[in-house]
Amino acid sequence: VQYMTPSRKARIAGGPIEVDISKLAMGEQKTILWQGKPIWIIKRTPEQIQELSMANTSLRDPLSFEDQQPDYARNFYRSRQDNPEILVLVGVCTHLGCAPTYRPDRQSIEKDWEGGFFCSCHGSKFDLSGRVFKNVPAPLNLVVPPYAFKDSTTLVVGVSSIGDVV
Question: Per the confidence metrics, is the pTM higher than 0.85?
């Protein structure tokens, strides 16, 4: 049984990590590695946040009913209600595991593109909350990992609240 217990190094690699977000500018993306996966941290602008709450009939799961996020991120923003400008996503396409690119600029993909994430492998598109559009190969929204704020400048990825023990 002792041989099946993960090593200390393996337990640490899967544990929560702290990220300093104090220098993250509006519209900027930061990528970290957690549990072997890229985690995107994006500071959205007030304009981007405002647009996300508008009804968008071209999204496959606009209200995030599928279980791709913690309960506290089941909203238009797919982030914590007290800090909607910070978006945290697993940077892996839900179609075949490719790495989409952050394309926040309007019309950078096509004429009616309002910004979001684009997976060039098979053409899947996601909005600035990681919600997938209809008629693309990706079946689900991008995953929101568990995360919490230690303070106003420190994000902890891997826990849903600071009191959680992993």
Answer: yes
